[in-house]
Amino acid sequence: MESFIHIYLKLFFIMTPFFLVSTFLSLTQDYESGKRLKTALKATLAISVSGLALYLFGKYIFQLFGITIDAFRIGAGTVLFLSSLKMAGGGGKPVDAGNDDDDIAVVPLAIPVAIGPGTIGVLLVMGVGVQSTQELLLSCSALVAATLTLGFLLVISSGIKRVLGRRGLNVLSRLTGLFVASMAAQMIFTGIKNFMF
Question: Which of 26, 134, 141, 177 ranks highest by number of CB atoms within 10 Å?
Answer without folding.
Answer: 177
